[in-house]
Amino acid sequence: MNRSLDAELVRWLAGELPPDRARELAGRLAREPELAARHRALAATWTELAPPPPSPLPAGLAARVMGQVRGATAPGALSWTLAPTWVRAAAAFALAVGVALGAGLGHRSARAADLPPGMGISPPESLATTYWTAVEDATSAPARTAGARP
Predict the structure, then answer these.
(1) pTM (2 decimals)?
(2) Percent of the chain, pLDDT > 90?
(3) What is the pLDDT of residues 47-92, one digit of tens each?
(4) CA atoms of 71 and 77, how far apart (whole Å)
(5) Which DSSP category does 1 fall into?
(6) Would the N or C end of the chain have less CB density within 10 A of its end CB?
(7) Nearby residues of 120 by Cβ (< 8 Å), 6 or more positions away
């Protein structure tokens, strides 16, 4: 099996494959037993990747969190009123400069087509591509012995 075919099978399992390509792949699965076996193996692995069902929150968690929030806002907690005047002035100035720059940059932003290659906004990678990149990274790393430190 080649990597691009495995990537297409994973994209199909994830629902990322276009319908016409999915139909073509389904036809190949009917004709090629080796490909069908690979698909079954990937599908079995795919179902094992399902996240576990959500578990309920521990009893009293909300009360403990709210207690921490109330304690953080108690008198004596850190606040802007305790900061020296020059710190508050510097923060206000930085905020004003950031707003001004942000407003100015919005009017003069470059289009992605005008940017050099690699500087534009690219579409996100597919799940299959990121999966196979992770598999390659994991299999190409040298094996670590148990208890060894990196």
Answers:
(1) 0.35
(2) 9
(3) 777 777 788 888 888 888 888 777 666 565 667 777 889 999 999 9
(4) 8
(5) -
(6) C
(7) 112, 113
Angle between helices 3-14 and 19-31 (to 10 degrees): 120
Which residue type sits at 27?
G
Which helix (DSSP H) or strand (DSSP E) does residue 126 occupy? none
Q: Residue written as tokens 């510097």?
A: 90
> Among all chains, which residue has been given the structure tokens 């792949």?
25
Spatial separation of the C-alpha atoms in residues 7 and 130, rounded to whole Å: 10
Percent of residues, the chain, with pLDDT higher than 70 = 71
pLDDT value at 107 more than 60: no
Please determine, for residue 109, whether its predicted confidence score (pLDDT) is greater than 60.
no
C-alpha 147, offset from chain centre: 30
What distance lies between CA 65 and its chain's CA centroid? 27
Q: Say yes or no to pLDDT of 18 above 80.
A: yes
Using an 8 Å Cβ cutoff, are 40 and 29 in contact?
no
- Are the beta carbons of 112 and 120 closer than 8 angstroms? yes
- Cβ within 8 Å of residue 30, ≥6 positions away: 36
Domain segments of the chain as ranges: 1-49
